[in-house]
Write a structure and sequence with these properties.
Helices cover 68% and strands 0% of the residues. It has 154 residues and is an all-alpha fold. The longest helix has 29 residues, at 92-120. It is flat, with a radius of gyration of 21 Å.
Length: 154
């Protein structure tokens, strides 16, 4: 592998991009999904969680540099996942209730916006986006709670 030099330091400021540059596609994808999903989630539902975004950025940056040093020392790549996807298997019930609760909290925050809209005659620009996000959360949670229907042999 050629030495990336300055590029690894520059690209690593965007979570996952430095990992992609090093060829660590799985880890980079998970970090990128975590970062941009966190942005979407904190902007649409819970603005209080925005403090976690710099933590993801710095973790990703130092993890990419650590992997870069490891690649230089050993010459090999170890594309380990940040978290195993199988950890969610069998927890559909808990995740489903979590999504339903997130949808309910989104609806409650919408009601606050609706009251402010009614009182001030100002329509918030994020109102429709929040409605769609709340519906997605609730529908996804209900789908996970219902589970898959097992087909019986006729």
């Amino acid at each position: 592998m050629r030495k990336p030099g300055r590029w690894i330091y520059i690209l690593s400021f965007l979570p996952g991009l430095g990992h992609f540059y090093l060829g660590l596609m799985n880890r980079g994808l998970q970090l990128m999904l975590l970062f941009f999903g966190g942005i979407l989630f904190s902007e649409q539902a819970f603005e209080e969680l925005q403090f976690l975004l710099p933590v993801i950025v710095f973790y990703s940056y130092f993890d990419a540099l650590s992997n870069y040093r490891s690649i230089l020392e050993t010459g090999g790549r170890n594309d380990e996942l940040l978290f195993e996807w199988g950890v969610f298997k069998g927890k559909e019930f808990v995740i489903g209730w979590g999504l339903v609760l997130l949808g309910v909290f989104s609806v409650l925050s919408l009601s606050q916006d609706l009251i402010a809209t009614y009182l001030s005659s100002y329509i918030p620009h994020q109102f429709l986006e929040r409605v769609v996000l709340a519906i997605i959360f609730i529908a996804g949670g209900i789908k996970l709670l219902r589970g898959e229907k097992k087909k019986e042999a006729a």
